[in-house]
Design brief:
Layout: E1 5-7, H1 10-15, E2 31-38, E3 51-57, E4 63-68, E5 73-79, E6 81-89, E7 96-99, E8 108-111, E9 137-138, E10 146-155, E11 162-166, E12 169-170, E13 173-183, E14 193-201, E15 203-205, E16 210-211, E17 215-221, E18 223-225, E19 230-237, E20 249-255, E21 261-267, H2 269-273, E22 280-289, E23 307-312
Parallel strand pairs: 2-11, 9-17, 13-22, 21-23
Antiparallel strand pairs: 1-4, 2-5, 3-4, 3-6, 6-10, 7-8, 8-15, 10-12, 13-19, 14-17, 14-20, 15-16, 18-19, 20-21
Amino acid sequence: MKAAKIIMPAMIAASLTACHHKDLCYEHVHRVDINVVFDWQNAPDATAKSMALYMYDTESGEHLRYIFDNNQGGPLSIPFGTYNGLCLNSDDTDWAIIRNEDDINSFEIYTADAEALETTGLSTRTMPRARATEEERVARTPGMIWSDRQDQIYLPETTTNKTITFYPDEDICHYTVDIYDVDNIEAIEGTSLDGTISGMAEGYLHGKKITTDNSVTMPFVMTVVRDNSSLHGEFLTFGECCTTARTHTMTVYMYLDDGSKKYYNFDVTDQVTGAADPRHVHIVIHGLSIPNPLTETGGFIPDVDDWEAVYINLNMNPR
């Protein structure tokens, strides 16, 4: 089994160039050899291919980062001491932005701004927004992350044949949206559709296993399912904010065949906050009427630059 690669910040490397633990020890770091195991019993369907391991020295506060090119673990040589450890997958994370990497309790992953909606190409800076969501940053949806934390890993200089086991589990939420019984769905077949949902957590604190309290709006793609007259969308989020209650407005943006543009707004707060499994949220809406396209003989053709807002009261929708 391959040993992990070590990636050491310059400040850490400098602090380890001299040994003060014993006399006659110059520029030598006393290390211990251990075995790291990633046990996937809490996430048997995980698809992680490589892992990052952060080891935080409880005395100095400094940290070391190791990369395993597999998801099982392997041998590791590390300076002796006592550590708090944090592991997470390191593959398919180009979307992830890390901040506060030097503090295990503040270690956060979040996503960059979403500049435009994927299907319609609408700029997120100028697109119409649902009421009370205008100030939220529009952020990209995350990818998958699995992580675990183990504290007080004691590695004395006399350590031999020690195994450290981590149990990564899933940190990301799966959201599914289905809008059934869409009247006149032909009017939007072949056109561009996008959705957004407000009040989502901006990031995730992996050292604490909680979401952040600052909220963002996240976009996702909607598709037409002609066979059962419905609209469907699937996307990932960090979930709801940890301690601050937010409302969740789902907005669907669509172009009609006549060039008119509408955005439909649904308050889905109850469905999100009341989901039986917060990691797998299914938003279901019944009944949506799409207007017939207007023609020169059928009525006024709106300015193509105008967006019409439609607010749907879900309490009036049949179940």
